[in-house]
Design goal:
The chain is α/β, with parallel strands linked by helices. Helix content is about 60%, strand content about 10%. The protein has 14 helices and five strands. The chain has helices at about 5-15, 20-30, 35, 40-45, 50-60, 65-80, 95-115, 120-130, 140-155, 165-175, 195-205, 220-225, 245-265, 265-285; strands spanning about 135-140, 160, 180-185, 210-215, 225-230. It has a five-stranded parallel sheet, sandwiched between helices. Helix 11 (about 195-205) links the parallel strand 3 and strand 4.
Amino acid sequence: MPIKSGGLIMIKNILDELPESEKKTANFILNNPSQIVTMTVSELGDASETSSSAAMRLCKSLGLSGFQDLKIRILGDLNSSHDASYSDIKRNDTIKSISQSLRNNAIKSIDETMQFFNEETIQKSIEIIDKADTILVYGMGASFIAAKDAQQKFLRVNKTCYAIEDTHLNATMIANLKQNDLVIGISSSGETSETIKLIELANSKEINTIGITKYGKTSLGKISKYSIYTPYSIESPFRSAATASRMSQLYIIDVLFMCYATSKYDSTIDYLENTVQTINEFKQME
């Protein structure tokens, strides 16, 4: 069984959302992670000058089963060799250093996204995708790139999937979806009003919904039937185009697609071979 990790990044992602007592406990953990793994919850309360109940509330805010779960994840973090921070480009950086920074950021973004995965949620999402006759994926700005990627992938395996920029057209499509269909909303912040409204519309018609958004308390996460989380950090100037969050979103789409394709392995191979053959025939047409 793989060792759980991600406890520290989970805390960092929701730190600003926490009430004062939980924030104080969280800051103590971030500053003393190696001490936490040998502490009891009462010892943590004393050491952080809060209480054991504040520590337990923190675990609940993180969506964890309890303090032991948090300790196991922090132990996994301490045993990880990954760098703890993203790097941004600087004045007069070389081509090599820029390339290396972007590579490291991409690897870290994917690694942190995987730490947020809930396998039960992923499995349920695959089941919903399988049952859906139509999938509608929506995102604005950089999130639309992930939506188009989902459309391209699922269409290749004969799964009707739309990614359309026009919000009114999306609302029109939702009006005609069936309850077994699926609407996926993608928003890094989880507060994009257009995405939220479309998910709310789908919910009002009892259509299945999945939100892909940052970990923590977001409007999109609250209203989506199922949520799959990405890490979230303050973008520095040269990452303002949401490079890291886009990488996380694309990774989630890849995971959903590959898991679905594997569950339908034989038919997927047939569809993909047929797609390649048809594209080749199209290229040869005069």
